[in-house]
Design brief:
The structure holds two protein chains of two kinds. Chain A is mainly β. Helix content of chain A is about 5%, strand content about 45%. By secondary structure, chain B is mainly β. Helix content of chain B is about 5%, strand content about 45%. In chain B, strands 10, 11, 14, 15, 18 and 20 form a six-stranded antiparallel β-sheet that branches. Classes of the chains: A mainly beta, B mainly beta.
Chain lengths: ~325, ~350
């Protein structure tokens, strides 16, 4: 499927950046300042990438931020996400150092308390055209699980769009590609304390059913899947290297605590047998590149099984499907 | 581009065009790599050229140009430049050396940089961990040229290294590698791509109060007579204590900087690029410290980007006595026909 976009003629770069949005702990939500994210120029712009910057005034928690802060994006009548997507599920990992930065002093917190920060970036699979006066609307939610006893989490999130200004006489086709992220994030329940406890030898079994679906009447070009595992120990301590680290994107240990299999809605296998998580979503990028068409109303189904994990820890998968579809502008 | 008279100034042309006296070219997208380069893809043999120099604080030194000539004579296509740094002795630790060492590149009389550019502003950050100089372990930066650089027979890309003086208490040994391939003498493309990197480095701004600075017209300028294809912007922040410096790395207080240094940006044609002051790492994404444009934006001849940098104020940082510095880079290429 071709995007139908001609080679775009651009006159200048542009960055739209919103001031920081403070999210209350455990369920806080809000919309970033739309006046700064609106295309106020006389020409349409194209957005090439979306970046997130999150700061939290508590140490050793930055690895946790990407899985708990979620974002829903839309531009006009077009949804860019299927719902609230954890911000680490938009783009592949580029260097996980950027997701786990700690400062020895706080900028705004009390003395002796550290800041943690994390950066994420989503390079869109296709440029997103934003007309004059339109804006990409980001809605954020802090889905922090309060059960682990960390109650001091009120992060500040920044979002910005990097793109280009189109020439005034640039022709925009009638049909334009629009990026889309579909998310399977099980147990995002309003009851924040209801995560199952995964204790040896208990195993848990998750099925995505049709969460990763093409809801549009046109085919969806799937670019990649991104898989993250969110772990939350029962205590606010950092685990050893061979067990999932507090709040981070935990990896399989020697035998793999988490396995995954997948098939499409026609029954064709994508991952035939339960396979260690890291063999599907390998650690450096957490990305599984594909490049196929998903027809309307079809879906991919993932099954995830947690086999063994340190007693008291909780873990759950977060899998996203990134692609784009054509829309009439 | 066509220069016309500015309003109210008949017959007078400014060397720096403004929105009123220049016709902006209609943003022609970058053309694919010229077919001669494609044909040369599988020709030649790999080559890696290396030279090193030890620089004292606040001094500069060129690396012997002989080291960067093709030892087999003949032309070359250079794909990337790599920097390695060592602090000399155990105990010399810094996360700052990417800003401490600046490099000027020339190919004959053709400048490939706008003066000295801190080496961490050449390209994107590929691995943050590898940028920390800890007890004389090396630290590494790489810049992949957006288009291969043709170096004619007998020519060389010559780096000159400057130690900016921070940290001021030890020498730094800098190794520079150029990697590419050596070509047959008959390879003589009709069109060449010349990379160009420019940077604006602010002074150290007091983080205990609101401080501002504006880049000069000559910092992020296309000083040539041909359009400049902007490949990417890069940005790095440095924070410093009066007794030393800390760098763009996680370990020591760096996290305070992203919201402390804010920028506003426009070009000399009047286009707003960043309308309001925004934290630096929301403009240039914190991931990779890079904003990729891939040559889809052109900067007309003599046009430039202007940056206003403003610090926030923090009582916490005031108590620490911290200062912050912004480095902002622009890299890309221009196309030149050979006679």
């Amino acid at each position: 499927m071709k995007t139908g976009l001609p080679k775009l003629r651009c006159v200048a770069p542009i960055c739209l950046s919103a001031p920081g949005l403070a999210l209350a702990a455990a369920g806080g939500s809000g919309i970033a300042d739309m006046s700064t994210l609106c295309n106020q120029l006389r020409s349409p712009i194209v957005i090439d990438s979306i970046s997130f910057y999150v700061r939290n005034t508590q140490s050793n928690l930055s690895g946790w931020l990407g899985g708990s802060i979620k974002c829903r994006l839309s531009v006009g009548r077009f949804d860019l996400t299927s719902g609230l997507v954890p911000i680490w599920n938009f783009g592949p990992v580029i260097d996980d150092s950027f997701e786990n930065l700690t400062a020895t002093s706080s900028l705004f917190g009390a003395g002796g308390v550290n800041d943690t920060v994390a950066f994420y970036k989503w390079k869109l699979p296709v440029p997103l055209i934003v007309r004059q006066g339109d804006a990409i609307t980001p809605y954020f939610e802090n889905s922090y699980n309060n059960s682990s006893g960390l109650t001091n989490l009120s992060p500040v999130v920044f979002i910005s769009f990097q793109g280009r200004v189109l020439a005034e006489d640039q022709h925009i086709p009638d049909m334009v590609p629009v990026p889309y992220v579909s998310i399977w994030d099980p147990l995002t329940t309003p009851s924040l304390n209801s995560f199952p406890s995964v204790s040896t030898p208990t195993s848990h079994y998750y099925v995505s059913f049709d969460a990763l679906k093409n809801p549009f009447p046109t085919p969806l070009r799937v670019q990649r899947f991104i898989g993250r595992l969110r772990s939350e120990p029962a205590s606010a301590t950092i685990g050893a290297m061979d067990v999932p680290i507090l709040g981070s994107d935990c990896d399989d240990t020697t035998n793999g605590p988490v396995t995954v299999k997948a098939q499409d809605s026609k029954g064709y296998s994508i991952i035939q047998d339960f396979t260690p998580w890291s063999y599907v979503f390998q650690e450096p990028r957490r990305s599984f590149i594909t490049g196929n068409l998903l027809q309307p109303n079809e879906s991919y189904s993932f099954e995830v099984q947690t086999v063994t994990i340190t007693t008291g820890n909780e873990v759950r998968p977060q899998i996203s499907m990134i692609g784009y579809r054509m829309e009439a502008y | 581009m066509k220069i016309i008279d500015g309003p109210g100034l008949p017959g007078i042309r400014s060397p720096i065009p403004t929105k009123h006296d220049v016709e902006v070219p209609a943003g022609k997208p970058a053309a694919p790599v010229h077919h001669e380069y494609v044909d040369a893809r599988y020709a030649g043999v790999p080559i890696n050229l290396y030279g090193s120099v030890t620089v004292n604080p606040s001094s500069e030194q060129a690396i012997n140009a002989i080291a960067f000539k093709n030892p087999n004579s003949g032309p070359m296509l250079i794909n990337e430049i790599k920097f390695q740094m060592f602090g000399g002795t155990t105990g010399n630790t810094t996360q700052f050396a990417g800003g401490a060492i600046a490099c000027k590149l020339d190919m004959g009389q053709i400048p490939l940089t706008n003066g000295f550019v801190p080496v961490w502003l050449f390209g994107r950050c590929e691995n943050l961990i590898m940028e920390s100089l800890n007890n004389n372990s090396g630290l590494y930066f790489r810049y992949r040229f957006p288009r291969p650089v043709f170096v004619p027979s007998g020519g060389a890309i010559v780096p000159t290294i400057r130690h900016t003086g921070i940290p001021g208490n030890f020498n730094i040994t800098v190794g520079v590698s150029l990697a590419g391939k050596a070509l047959a003498p008959s390879f003589s493309p009709s069109k060449v791509y010349l990379p160009y990197v420019a940077a604006f480095v602010s002074k150290f701004l007091d983080l205990s109060t609101v401080s501002t600075q504006t880049s000069a017209e000559s910092d992020l300028i296309n000083q040539f007579d041909t359009p400049f294809f902007v490949d990417r912007f890069t940005a790095r922040c440095t924070q410093a204590l009066p007794g030393g410096a800390q760098g763009d790395y996680a370990a020591t207080g760096f996290a305070a900087v992203p919201e402390m240094i804010n920028i506003r940006m426009r070009d000399s044609l009047g286009n707003p690029i960043v309308k309001d002051f925004s934290p630096i790492y929301t403009v240039v994404p914190g991931v990779e410290r890079s904003w990729a444009l891939n040559g889809d934006v052109q900067l007309p001849p003599k046009a430039y980007y202007s940056i206003d940098v403003q610090t926030a104020s923090s009582a916490q940082l005031a108590a620490l006595g911290l200062f912050g510095q912004l480095g902002f880079g622009m890299s890309g290429w221009r196309e030149v026909s050979r006679k």
